[in-house]
Amino acid sequence: MIRILIAEHLPLVRRGLLATLGAEPDLRVVAEAGRAEEVVRTALAAEADVAVVDLDLPGPPVAGPLARQAPRCGVLILSAAPNPAQVREALAGPALGFMSLCVPPEQLADGVRQVAAGRRAIEAELALAALQCASNPLTRRELDVLRIAAGGARSTEIADELFLSVGTVRNHLSRIMCKTGARNRLDAVRIASDSGWL
């Protein structure tokens, strides 16, 4: 019997996961958590084999603390709207699985079994997108500039907020467009957002 912890902050989604996984003869949901701070304590107390964790769970990331404090508990991350950068980041860490909430119930159940066995469980489309996704070419400062530009700020407003000269901001924007292949600022924001860099 595989013992499962469901870490999901939305009660309706949590109940759906409980019903889906609880219907499988070899899976048993032994605990639930609605906040990140509860996950490690709950996993240890319930002796969970797998934690099914919502990527948007309120609080700090839980995969690292779980790996350190409850190494027997594998982590399968779920996301309502995953992007390739999130998948790459999650799987670069201690998580063994990553799936969207749109997967068929049997695929989720099989993913839990894979993680319990210490194997990777990644939704095929997400894995392909993560492999095809280029790594972020933008520097931290360029990302700061682009985040502010995404809100519609002009170069002078970006310069004021980041304590830079207008010329430096324009140079950053020019480099951002070159690195992303964007036609203009809005296109750069769209490319960076779609790639999960912003």
Provide an overview of this structure.
The chain has 198 residues and is an alpha/beta fold. It has 10 helices and 6 strands; from the N terminus they run βαβαβαβαβαβααααα. It has a 6-stranded parallel sheet with strand order 2-1-3-4-5-6, sandwiched between helices. α4 crosses α6, α7 crosses α9 and α8 crosses α9. The longest helix is centred in the last third of the chain and has 15 residues. The model has no long low-confidence stretch (mean pLDDT 89).
Number of helices: 10
Oligomer state equals: single chain
Helix content: 40-55%
Given the C-alpha coordinates, what overall shape results? elongated
Strand order of the largest sheet: 2-1-3-4-5-6
**Helix-strand makeup class:** alpha/beta
Mean pLDDT: 89
What about the largest sheet?
6 strands, parallel
Reconstruct the topology from this structure.
Elements: E1 2-7, H1 11-22, E2 27-33, H2 36-46, E3 50-54, H3 63-69, E4 74-79, H4 84-92, E5 97-100, H5 105-116, E6 121-122, H6 124-132, H7 140-150, H8 155-162, H9 166-180, H10 185-194
Parallel strand pairs: 1-2, 1-3, 3-4, 4-5, 5-6
Q: How would you briefly describe this protein structure?
A:
The chain is of the alpha/beta class and 198 residues long. Helices cover 53% and strands 15% of the residues. The chain contains 10 helices and 6 strands, in the order βαβαβαβαβαβααααα.
List its salient traits:
198 residues; alpha/beta; 6 strands; elongated
